[in-house]
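Propose amino acids for all 334 sites.
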C-alpha cells in the first residue's frame, strides 16, 4: 500500500534545511532560513521570533503552517531557489496564477512576477482565459502580456459591455476603458485593411458574372506585376465582404475572414444566380472563396499587428497594484 506524500520534492526537501513550511494541504517544504530571509522581510520577521513560536516540530525541525496549497507554495519558492529548479514552470490553472501573485504580495517576495509570466507563456491560459490574464497583466504592469491578452480577447469575440473576470471583481474602471479603446482601434485597423486592399489576381475567379448586374461595389485587383484594374465582384462575394466587415465590428481579427457561417452563407447565396453556378462547380467555388479568405485573414492580422495598443504602453509613474480582489466564488483563502 502506498503512503501519501507529505514531503515536497527537491530542492524543497533540503536535508540541510533548518525550517519547514507546511502547506494548507499538508505538504512539508524543508528549507534553509538563510535563503528565505534574504528574499522576504516577512520570512525574516517570522524566523526572528523565538523558536517556540513554531506550530510544532518534525524530526526536530520547527515547522510553520501557511495558508497556501503546495501547488502555489512550490511556485512561490521558485523565486528563492531559481538556480535549483529543473525544467519549466507550468501552471494551467488561472486561479493558481492569481493566488501565486497574491502570495507574493503577502510575503513581499520579489522575482515571483518572472515565475508567473514564464508560467503564463508556457501554458494555454492566454487562449482559455485571455480576459483574466489581461486584468492581471494590467494590474501588474506587464505590457507585453496585456497586449497579447487584449488581442486574444477581441479575437474570441468577448463582450466588452459588461466584462466579467472569473477571478477578480470589481475590474478597475481604467482597465475597462483602456480595453474598449484598444478594441475600437483594432476594429478601425481591421476595416481599414478591407477598404484599402488590392486583391491578388487569383481572386478574379470571384468576379465577372454577367448575371450579377445589381452590384454597386467594386474591388481593385492585380492584373499583372505592374498594373491593377477595377473589377465587379460576384454578388455572393460582395455579400461575403459585407458580412466579414460587419463581423469585424464585434471580432476584429483575421480569423473572422474564415468564419464558417459567413462562408457557408455566401455559398448559399451563390446558388441564387444561375450564371454563377455555371461558371464553376460548388467545390471549386468553395475552394476559391476559402483561398481568398486565407489571404484576407493575413492582411487583416498584419494591419492589426502594426498598431500599438494602449495596453502596450507603459503608464508613467505606474506602481504595481496588490492583487487582493479574489472573486469570493473562486478564492481558496490566503
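Proposal:
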Amino acid at each position: 500500500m502506498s503512503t501519501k506524500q507529505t514531503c515536497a520534492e527537491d530542492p524543497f526537501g533540503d536535508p540541510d534545511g533548518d525550517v519547514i513550511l507546511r502547506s494548507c494541504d499538508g505538504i512539508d517544504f524543508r528549507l534553509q532560513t538563510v535563503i528565505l530571509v534574504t528574499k522576504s522581510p516577512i520570512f525574516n520577521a517570522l524566523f526572528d521570533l523565538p523558536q517556540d513560536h513554531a506550530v510544532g516540530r518534525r524530526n526536530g525541525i520547527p515547522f510553520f503552517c501557511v495558508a497556501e496549497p503546495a501547488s502555489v507554495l512550490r511556485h512561490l519558492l521558485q523565486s528563492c531557489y531559481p538556480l535549483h529548479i529543473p525544467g519549466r514552470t507550468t501552471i494551467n490553472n488561472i486561479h493558481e496564477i492569481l493566488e501565486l501573485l497574491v502570495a507574493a504580495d503577502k510575503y513581499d517576495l520579489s522575482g515571483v512576477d518572472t515565475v508567473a509570466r514564464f508560467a503564463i507563456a508556457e501554458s494555454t491560459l492566454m487562449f482559455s482565459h485571455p480576459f483574466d490574464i489581461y486584468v492581471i497583466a494590467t494590474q501588474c504592469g506587464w505590457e507585453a502580456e496585456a497586449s497579447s491578452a487584449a488581442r486574444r480577447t477581441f479575437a474570441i469575440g468577448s463582450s466588452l459591455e459588461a466584462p466579467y473576470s472569473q477571478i477578480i471583481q470589481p475590474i478597475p474602471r481604467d482597465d475597462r476603458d483602456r480595453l474598449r479603446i484598444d478594441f475600437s482601434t483594432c476594429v478601425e485597423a481591421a476595416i481599414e485593411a478591407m477598404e484599402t486592399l488590392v486583391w491578388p489576381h487569383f481572386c478574379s475567379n470571384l468576379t465577372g458574372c454577367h448575371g450579377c448586374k445589381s452590384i454597386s461595389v467594386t474591388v481593385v485587383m492585380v492584373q499583372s506585376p505592374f498594373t491593377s484594374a477595377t473589377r465587379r465582384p460576384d454578388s455572393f462575394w460582395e455579400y461575403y465582404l459585407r458580412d466579414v466587415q460587419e463581423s469585424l465590428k464585434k471580432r476584429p481579427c483575421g480569423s473572422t475572414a474564415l468564419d464558417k457561417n459567413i462562408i457557408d452563407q455566401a455559398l448559399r447565396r451563390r446558388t441564387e444566380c444561375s450564371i454563377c453556378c455555371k461558371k464553376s462547380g460548388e467545390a471549386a467555388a468553395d475552394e476559391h472563396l476559402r483561398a481568398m479568405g486565407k489571404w484576407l485573414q493575413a492582411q487583416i492580422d498584419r494591419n492589426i499587428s502594426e498598431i500599438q495598443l494602449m495596453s502596450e504602453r507603459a503608464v508613467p509613474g505606474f506602481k504595481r497594484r496588490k492583487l487582493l480582489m479574489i472573486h469570493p466564488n473562486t478564492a481558496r483563502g490566503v
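Confidence is low (pLDDT under 50) at residues 324-334. The longest helix spans residues 282-305.
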